[in-house]
Amino acid sequence: MRRTRGNANVAGLQDLPYDYRRPAPSRVSGDTHDMESQLSLEFLRVVENAAIAAARTMGFGDRHHADEVAVESMRETMDSLQMDGTIVIGEGERDEAPMLYIGEKVGLAQHAPSANFPAVDIAVDPLEGTNLCATGAPNSIAVLAASERGGLLHAPDLYMEKIVVGPSCKGAVDLDAPVADNLKSIARRLERSVEDLVVIVLDRPRHEKLIADIRNAGARIRLIGDGDLSAGISAAVVGTGVHAVMGTGGAPEGVLTAAALRCLNGQILGRLVVAKPQDQERLEKMGVKDPKRIYDTEDLAPGKRMIFACCGVTDGNLLRGVRFFGEGIRTQSMILTLDDRLVRFIDTVRLDKRPDVRVRFN
Fold first, then answer.
1. CA–CA separation, 56 and 310 (whole Å)
2. Exposed/middle/buried for 310, CB within 10 Å: 0-12, 13-18, 19+?
3. Are 103 and 86 in contact (CB under 8 A)?
């Protein structure tokens, strides 16, 4: 994994109270009230570094190596932050994942237990769309969400039935309703016909009936190979041309999506899929008592303070991917905060430290 020797931010960070490239100064306290202002731009650095590491592997066809370098970079950066972090959604359970496993501690509190650093729960997907990165396809991103302790559901690594809609359609959909009824409700809220709707669905054999139902109802479909998290964000933003996401995807991605939707005022409904007896055993170990429960957005991400950060790895609908040029690296990221109600798109250029370096904006 190649690292750059220097960096400089050229846009979007004029309001920084300190240098975002270094750990926050000692004024950081354990009070979670200011967690968003203390850590949001620190988490920018986490997702930027992970995206750059993954982008170095783009197109090599090795999805496992791409994910590995993103995980390594994300963990290394998080361990430099003044926080008491716990991974609640990560690369898997401890026996399956050497780093960023569920329950792993990250941050400088590991080395300074007496320090009063903010305690945060963290959900990560160091490389959403590993196949997308490996093949150079669009919409691969590095993702992180954080909240105060207990602010993110400890979701098991199972499948989850999902419906995602934007602010205008909150309360209009039902996970148990027929597809046609949900589409009519969405269309009614958006003051358009069902034929005008675009629904994103993961291109999987399990969605054969769902796809047929959507088409029979008259709505249009955009099939995607991976990346239902970024698709969910698109559904919550006006003007993207996406009106809903439907289908079954990963439960951890559902929690990350919920964190973003809390900040964007959208809605996700989800229900865990228990397909095997061992799935039920895992739910019981994680304290999930009702496997048939339908989770709403605030059930998946109930925190009062919420940070969602992502950085493009490959070009996508929301963010451009990492771009390498002779004198440095350019990234595009998005940071959402709940209490501050901020949506920041940040364009960063990291420059090599050379006497003849030239800054370029295009």
1. 17
2. buried
3. yes
Find the helix or strand (DSSP H, E) in which 128 lies. strand 119-128
* Cα–Cα distance, 303 to 310 (Å, whole number): 19
Look up the pTM and report it: 0.87
DSSP-derived secondary structure letter, 33: G
- Residue 5 CA to residue 355 CA, distance in Å, equals 13
Q: 117 by DSSP, 3-state: which? A: coil
Under DSSP, the state recorded for 238 is T
Q: Does domain 159-300 have CATH number 3.40.190.90?
A: yes
DSSP assignment of 121-170, as one string? EEEEEEEE-HHHHHHT-S--EEEEEEEETT-S----SSEEEEEEE-GGGT
Tokens of 188: 């009614």
For residue 330 the two structure tokens come to: 């350019």
Is pLDDT of 358 > 70? yes
CATH superfamily label, 8-151+305-351 = Fructose-1,6-Bisphosphatase, subunit A, domain 1 (3.30.540.10)
Instruction: Enumerate the domain spans of the chain.
Output: 8-151+305-351, 159-300
21: pLDDT confidence band, cut at 50, 70 and 90?
A: very low
Give φ, ψ of 7 to 5 degrees: -150, 155
Pull the structure tokens for residue 74.
């994300």
Q: How far apart are CA 359 and CA 257, in angstroms?
A: 35
**CA dist., res. 318 & res. 334, Å (int):** 9
Two tokens at 217? 């109802």
